[in-house]
Structure prediction request, 244 residues.
Amino acid sequence: MAGNYTYLLVDLGCILVPFIASFHPKLSFYKKFYPHVILALLGMMLLFIPWDIAFTKAGVWSFNETYLTGHRFLDLPLEEWFFFICIPFACLFTYACVRLFFPSINQLRVGWYLALGLVVLFLIVAFTHINQAYTFSAHFLCALLLIYHVYKRSAWLTSFFLMYAFVFPAFIASNGILTGLEFWQYNFILTDPTVVTDQIVWYNNEENLGIRIFSVPIDDISYGMLMLLMNVSVYEWVSRRQTT
Prediction:
């Protein structure tokens, strides 16, 4: 691909269209940049940046310098910092579109029931894989946040899950490039992750479930859900404060 700029181009590719579309007069998402989006990103990064640094140092995952510009901050590649801006921004934009174009969807309680089902599933996965750092932490923390929102009866959960469904193909494509440049060449369900090559982000398979969707560790689903749920949680919290 583009050598040292590959990871950076993936980041920019994810944010470019949503950023431009934010200025469409019907959407006017740019009006939410501050404080909604900025605080949502910062709130999420308070957890994910220390987590990322710790797991990088522990060898749970690492980064292939061949596809990086070489600039680092707090031991993380600059591109990794951009990842926690570009991907969540694109998803918050999608979430705002869901709220705009499907205003009555939150009258459905399907979000609560889906959240309860995921809580059970994620807790089972977490506590049957306590010794696998990535699997346990991603599933357990996501389950905790889902439990909180079920308890609080967060009305927007259905909108959140619809947004997650919309972005899931792009999530697989972008993470696929990061975890195996030509990810489409692998089986849809891959049970031998050792065959994956050309990884921008390398994973220690001893610390995850060892199952992949194409080249994407299946644990990334709960990790990504947690990241986006934290973003939307803060976004909605700011929205409520702005209207009171």
In short: The two ends are 49 Å apart (CA to CA).
